[in-house]
Amino acid sequence: MPNTVYRGVGPHIAYARRVARLTQADLARAAGIALGTLRKIERGERGVSDAVLDAIATALGTEPARLLPDRERPEDRLHQQMPELAAVLAEYEAPEDGPFRPLSALQEAVAAIVEQRLSAQYARIAHTVPELLAELCRALHAVTVAEQPAVARLLVDACRAADAVAYKHGARDLSGRLLDLMRWAAGYSRDPLVDAAVAYVRTELHFGARTHAAGLRALERSIDRAPVAASPDAVAARGALHMRAAVLAGRAGDGTAANAHLDEARSLGDRVSEGVYQGTAFGPDSVRVHEVSVAVSLGDDHLDRALQLAREWKPPQSLPAERRSGFYIELGRAQLWAGHPDAAFEALKVARRIAPQHTRGHRWVKEDAATLRRLKRADAESLTHFAEWCHAGS
Question: What are the chain's domains?
């Protein structure tokens, strides 16, 4: 795969280094690159590859996207990889023969990309996922029938990571094709828990199309087909579907159904420890995050409930970054609608600190930042910078 080279990042790196109170020698040492290389990068005499950018960002304790100039937004990496992704999606049922790593190595690679999804490192996913998907498709067709279920589960997880990038950056056609690949691969897994995970993700189609009532009906059928909640994984699978159904019901304006699904999710959440099951965070804390989401979706008289929940509880650091930032994005919308624009802006800034790539690409963040800017509340300069950062109004 060709390596992307970014230009114009030198001033951003130099600024972040000074803020971190590091010398050029300190940063070069921490990033594992030559001092002369760093000097040339900061002077703009050479570009930066993905690998070097990631190393520098890690050394600075920031996201690679924070070091890119505006013309090199994180979503640009997705667009650069779209031809490769499209090729994988066109031939997954009959891929060309080729090499693939042993199952243990593939498991390590997929575990890494799942962690990147949960921590909202979308730029890294976009760079590596096309080649990984192609490799997994080759493996699925080449391994023995006995090995296929394990490879199929990995393919579903990798597709989900790719879909997170595509969906959150508005590439809905690509997202839909990735969902088709997920459903196809799930058939090879012969695992009803994988089927439940795919049903959870496929609700994106209804969120995107705003067909929330239809999505709720489809998800309730998936709940009926889900495994009996006998094991922790099965409990989490059913609980995650109920969480998702509660949000769909909230978006559909059906408060009765939303509360019923929340009650089921809460009951199931109390039976397991908070954790990541089949790629989805579930447990008591995740259910609380969704309580806020449902209250915001229902709006009006329910906003006080969202604000009360936020006063009583904050998502712990142990929750995945993507979910924690989502909580503050929802809270920001509740604060804005409740007439507290300063508090809304503070919530959006917290979301950005937790997961900048997730926050920057979120449709609600763009909408709310644009609204706050029109209201001309909070610190004008900071709000202007934030709105420009997330391309509010674009």
Answer: 1-71 (1.10.260.40), 73-189 (no CATH), 191-312 (no CATH), 327-394 (no CATH)
